[in-house]
């Protein structure tokens, strides 16, 4: 393990982080091998300490301006600024990071949080960023779209409507959010689903330099539930108590097996916060001291902010305070890893 901070490779251009482009894999691979040799970067298999970086939903749909759900934060350019710092952090600390897991929010058109899933008596669908309450469904203001039933619950519209009511109630009971209607985003097979080009390039460069395979975790493609956290969907069973989804126990164990776990990504108020929340629940069940090996890159994540519509900054900040109080470390990507509390490189 090379624990010193390394020079950022010359190919990295922070001005292009907010753009989409093709990664030149062949040249990056050649450069990565030469760069690793020049900087005495060894294969990750030789690391004494296992350091894992978890990247949450660093995809075009959330991270590129003018894409469907750009996470602007209060700075109006949050995700781009976050990814500049994240790429630079990865390059500088490439010799310390043993494993990388990247989550991929993955959606289809007909899912419970997309406009087409719901309809009113006028045949209209809810607008994106609408919040659907239990009262909205009970009153008939919004109901399941009969035309969707054939693609989701085998043409059984009554079951679909009953499930919608059950789902909204479960969300209300959880105390997280009401059902949010999101714009179509992270569509499977679409350009928005892809990792940000600059970060994809950094992961590829790391993989070649360290001879370690990046791992990818697909989440969010269940039509009947939201899946903010990569570790579990919001609802695990339907209105008849049939299991429709499960916790990702394999990934949970993988994360907890690391000697140090670093987490960054988008959005701080949603997929990042609930992934950490679910991880913390697991930690507190097993051994609360495990929280001390989790490091949250606070300057590499931003909350959902849509001016005049929603602002989840305060909720995100409250969540991170909770994580810190539980023993997790709130750190900055610009600080040397060797200075982080409790880190043993």
Question: How would you sum up this structure, described in words?
Answer:
The protein has ten helices and twelve strands. The chain is an alpha/beta fold and 345 residues long. The protein folds into two domains: 14-107 and 189-339, Rossmann fold, CATH 3.40.50; 115-180, no CATH class. The strands form four sheets. It has a six-stranded parallel β-sheet with strand order 7-2-1-8-9-12, with helices on both faces. It has a two-stranded antiparallel sheet with strand order 3-5. α1 packs across α7, α3 (78-92) runs parallel beside α7 (197-210) and α9 (271-286) runs parallel beside α10 (313-325). It is globular, with a radius of gyration of 21 Å.
Distance between the termini: 8 Å
What CATH architecture of the largest domain do you see? 3-Layer(aba) Sandwich
Overall average residue pLDDT: 95
Helix content range of the residues, please? 25-40%
- What fraction of the residues are assigned to beta strands by DSSP? 5-15%
Instruction: Note the main sheet.
Output: 6 strands, parallel
- Round the Cα radius of gyration to an integer and report it: 21 Å
CATH fold name of the largest domain: Rossmann fold
Counting DSSP E segments of at least 2 residues, the number of strands comes to 12
Strand order of the largest sheet: 7-2-1-8-9-12
> What's the tally of helices?
10
CATH homologous superfamily label of the largest domain: Isochorismatase-like
Number of domains: 2
Form type: globular
Derived from helix and strand composition plus strand pairing, the structural class reads alpha/beta
CATH class of the largest domain: Alpha Beta
The low-confidence parts are none
What is the succession of H and E elements?
A: HEHHEEEHEHHEHEHEHEEEHE
């Amino acid at each position: 393990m090379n624990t010193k901070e390394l020079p950022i490779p010359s190919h990295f251009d922070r001005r292009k982080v907010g753009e989409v482009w093709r990664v030149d894999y062949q040249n990056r691979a050649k450069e990565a091998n030469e760069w690793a040799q020049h900087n005495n970067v060894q294969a990750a298999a030789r690391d004494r300490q296992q350091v894992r970086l978890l990247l949450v939903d660093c995809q075009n749909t959330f991270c590129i301006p003018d894409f469907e759900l750009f996470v602007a934060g209060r700075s109006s350019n949050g995700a781009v600024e976050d990814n500049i710092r994240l790429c630079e952090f990865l390059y500088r600390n490439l010799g310390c990071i043993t494993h990388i897991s990247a989550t991929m929010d993955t959606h289809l058109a007909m899912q419970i949080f997309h406009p087409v899933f719901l309809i009113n008596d006028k045949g209209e669908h809810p607008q994106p960023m609408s919040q659907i309450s239990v009262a909205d469904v009970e009153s008939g203001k919004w109901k399941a779209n009969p035309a969707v039933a054939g693609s989701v619950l085998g043409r059984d519209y009554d079951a679909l409507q009953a499930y919608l009511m059950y789902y909204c109630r479960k969300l209300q009971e959880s105390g997280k959010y009401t059902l949010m209607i999101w714009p179509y985003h992270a569509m499977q097979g679409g350009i928005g689903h892809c990792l940000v080009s600059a970060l994809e390039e950094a992961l590829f460069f790391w993989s070649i330099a360290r001879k370690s395979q990046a791992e990818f975790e697909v989440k969010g493609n269940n039509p009947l539930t939201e899946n903010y956290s990569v570790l579990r969907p919001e609802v695990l069973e339907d209105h008849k108590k049939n299991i429709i989804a499960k916790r990702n126990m394999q990934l949970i164990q993988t994360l907890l097996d690391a000697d140090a776990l670093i987490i960054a990504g988008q959005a701080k108020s949603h997929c990042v916060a609930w992934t950490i929340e679910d991880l913390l629940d697991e930690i507190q069940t097993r051994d609360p001291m495990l929280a001390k090996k989790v490091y949250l890159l606070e300057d590499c994540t931003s909350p959902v902010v849509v001016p005049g519509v929603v602002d989840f900054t305060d909720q995100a900040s409250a969540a991170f305070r909770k994580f810190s109080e539980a023993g997790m470390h709130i750190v900055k990507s610009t600080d040397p890893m060797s200075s982080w509390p409790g880190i043993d490189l």
